[in-house]
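Q: I'm writing up a methods section and want to include an example of the input and output format. Could you take the sequence below and give the corresponding predicted structure tokens, formatted cleanly so I can copy it straight into the document?
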Amino acid sequence: MTLPSPSLSPQSSAPKHKRSLDTHLFRVAAVTMCRGDHFFLKRWIDYYGKALGKENLFIILDGEDEPSPPNGEGATILRVVHKELERAAGDKHRIGLLNQLSFDLFQKGYQAVIGCDSDEFLVIDPKEGISLVEYLQQLYLMGYTSASALGIDVGQNLHTERTIDPSLPLLAQRKYAVLSSRYTKASVKFLPQLRWGSGFHRIKGRNYKIAPSLFLFHTGYSCESFLKKREEDPARVNGGWENHLAKRGKTILYVTNKKAKQGDQLLRISRFLQQIFRPIYALNKPLMPTPPIVIEIPKRFRQITF
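A: Here is the clean output for your methods example:
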């Protein structure tokens, strides 16, 4: 299925009053686009399917030859013709399709749309004791127009951690992560006219707010074998991904060689710093104004299944 090109209306101002909504009517969808990374896509479907219901998952497969995920029954699977594009152009193409898909979902009555890559998992701090939908509903009723989640870039300590066992949850096998503003993404929209920038890193033309107790676990570099597979992918090499992968792959280097610190206090500090600091070239993106910080993921998160 080929989706139409995005044609979104101008952005409106944030709500001037508190919203009200029957709890049974709050609908949340999740969207992603995938090519090749079916190890992660299967976990993405399991995680968000349990949190939202599979009928609220919308997946664009990048290529008519892409196989359907084995656990995709119940989700909406869309296929588009794959375009061989350079990395930056490809990112813009993909986010254009996902913005249009999210706009269509708001038109169908959803109040919130989650957008993320297939190796990214939006998590509520377990100590809150509420579900992802319940938490997003609270943000909606508070008047949020979008919400960013604090980025937790999970890595592999090559000295102490083995290759990922696909039969086990990821966080049960990984103890360490880097606090990364790169993955503090504007993953949730509550207004249809808002448009994500490439990679969900920002909302175009809008400031950001990192919601308390909301985290984005990025798992793409949680195993050295994942990184090597991507580095050996001819499509990524031809598309100019080498430098990007080498830079992002430093997560494993940091986790392996830097001493990990206890997570909770640093999570609070990181959220505070990233809310204030931002790069000069993109004032609506967060910045972590410190050298890379490796944390030990608090144990309560390691019980989460994805």
